[in-house]
Amino acid sequence: MSIPQPERLHLDSDAATGYPNSPLPVLIYRQVLDISNAEERANTFESMFKQHGWPPAWRYHLYDFDHFHSTAHEALGIFQGQAKARLGGPNGQEVMLYTGDVLVLPAGVGHASLEADDDFCMVGAYPPGQEPEIERGDPAQLAAALERVAAVALPEDSPVGGPLAEMWRQGS
Fold it and tell me: Cα torsion for 168, 92, 128, 132, to the nearest 10°?
């Protein structure tokens, strides 16, 4: 399987809402999997993520409130349905997520579901040793969140394969 080139989305920190976001771009890999069965797609995403050093942690939908993780990078593999998401916090950008897509969120990037199919579901994964805390923007805590984000180690590989640092550098 060849690795598609990801779309890159740059999101600056937002002092007004307290969302740190990241100097690293969000990576959106489109149509990574073209498998017709949802359970098989989920299993394949889990195997792929694990193979590339991102142990799968859960299967669930995307929360409908803006939040971020300042202590972990996150990979999301959409295995069923589609959703309109907002990335970057309350003042962020809207993107559509489709079955077969993978989203790689650098630590600190806000994300929320705005609209989703009833059956929308994803596989979530994090690099080893990174535990996500669910955080909401707080302008008074932005400096501390930015420090935590800067301290998160960069994984060697993208969850879909290939050197992640190179993907993030290309987009910076």
Answer: 160
pLDDT digits (tens, 9 = 90+) for 63-81: 999 999 999 999 999 999 9
Query: Does pLDDT of 99 surpass 80?
Result: yes
Taking the CA atoms of the chain, what radius of gyration do you get in angstroms? 15
Length of the chain in terms of residues written:
172
Instruction: Write the DSSP string, the chain.
Output: -PPPPPEEEEE--BTTTTB--EEEEEEEE------S-HHHHHHHHHHHHHHTT--EEEEE---SS-BB-TT--EEEEEEE--EEEEESSTT-EEEEE-TT-EEEE-TT--EEEEEE-TT-EEEEE--TT--PPPB---GGGHHHHHHHHHHSPPPSB-TTSSBHHHHHHHH-
What are the structural domains, with CATH classification, of the chain?
A: 7-163 (2.60.120.10)
**Beta pairing, strands 121-125 & 56-60:** antiparallel
Cα-based angle 94, 100, 103 (whole degrees, multiple of 5): 45
Amino acid at 57: A
